[in-house]
Amino acid sequence: MTHTKHNVWIRFLIGNRPLRTLVRAMILAGVCFWVFRFSIIPVYVRGDSMLPTYHDGQFGFANSLAFRNQDPGFGEVVVIELSGRRKMYLKRIVGLPGDTVEFRDGNLFVNNDFIPETYVILPTDWTVPPETLGQQEFYVVGDNRSMPWHAQTMGIVDRERIVGRIMF
Amino acid sequence: MKRIILAVALGLLVGVWVWNRYGGDRDARRIHGRFDELVSIVEKTEPTNQLRILSLAQQVPEFFSPDATITLAPMYSGNLTRREVTSYLARAHQALDRLTIRISDRRLDIDRDNDTALLRFTAHGSLEIGSNRDSQLHAFELRWIKTDGDWYIQRATTIQTIRRPGAED
Q1: CB within 8 Å of B43: residues ≥ 6 apart
Q2: Given the DSSP bridges, would you call strands A100-104 and A128-132 parallel, antiparallel or unpaired?
């Protein structure tokens, strides 16, 4: 009886043709490797800097091909590489190359124009000095402005470190 | 027979992964080993007395070359010597109840001609003081130099992935 059960499990796991199962498993592993290495980045959010848009513990995916042929756009939520892709920052772009970005009393100004931000819900009174971006620089910040600005990792990032756009 | 082939193939896959991760290069193993040891000293996972803190902190200079420079911006402005790092760590351990560090995305490049190596990684540090908790994510770069057959950190730098407004490049 035990022997029969054992055989059923073996058959269930590797099928009647082990070699064919192995080939299928390797193809599947190859496809998964390609998708998750070069195309989609799984994102597990830690921390509160993107509240209320993304909360601690939320899971999602980022498209790492999104910026292969185009630059990141204003308002996009992007993932930013540190030393690799296991730990990354999740931030929103509020300044494009050449822009001058600043915050006055919680309001965003780009090139001295007030920019309404519907995604910022929590109260904020940030006043951050203006910063003019270089040709390969973007200004990124989290949606949670209720924390002091110097307590949040925000500011200028090089284009090459922006490696994907959040999908959902 | 087919099961044996399957087992051998899986064994080979596991073997390649283990070799890739842990084996092959004595220098790489030594650097990774010393780095792990340093991280375990920097961490504080349980309450410790003053003597223990000083004893642990005294081990830190052994990981650095005598001319080492350590730059921990934006956490600490200016450069630190290996002696200053020791007292900095001792003070931090006295103040903190808990400090844990998770290391990811290690990349090690060894230059065998010059006996130097560059280790880049991301560190996620979580600290507790009483009921207050904080966590920080930073990328680091450690330049190692081989002296008298062993590896020492010659330069430690924080890579400022996102530069704060008003901060210098």
Answers
A1: B99, B100, B101
A2: antiparallel
CB within 8 Å: B120 and A83: yes
Residue scoring higher pLDDT (A66 or B56):
A66
Interface A:B, Cβ pairs < 8 A: 81
Provide the β-strand partners of residue A31.
Answer: none
pTM here?
0.80
Asked whether the beta carbons of residue B164 and residue A150 sit closer than 8 angstroms, the reply is: yes
Question: Residue B169 pLDDT more than 60?
Answer: no
List, in sequence order, every residue forming a beta bridge with A44; answer none if it has no partner: A59
Report the side by side order of strands in the sheet with A137-141: A40-44, A59-63, A162-166, A77-81, A88-95, A137-141, A155-158, B162-163
Task: Tell me the one-letter amino acid at B34.
Answer: R
The helix or strand, by DSSP H or E, that contains position B41, with its residue range, turns out to be helix B26-42
Tokens for A7, please give them.
Answer: 């055989």
Residue B169, burial from CB neighbour count under 10 angstroms (0-12, 13-18, 19+) = exposed
Tell me how crowded residue B50 is: count the other CB atoms within 10 A of its CB: 10
Residue among B124, B39, B51 at smallest CA distance from A89: B124
Specify the DSSP element, H or E, that contains A27. Answer: helix A18-34
A84/B104 Cβ within 8 A? yes
pLDDT in tens, A50-107: 999 999 999 999 999 999 999 999 999 999 999 998 999 999 999 999 999 999 999 9
User: Positive or negative, the Cα torsion across B43, A45, A130, A71?
Assistant: positive
**A86, B122 Cβ separation under 8 angstroms:** yes
A interface toward B at CB cutoff 8 Å?
14, 17-19, 21-22, 46-47, 80-87, 89, 91, 101-102, 128-131, 140, 150, 153-157, 161
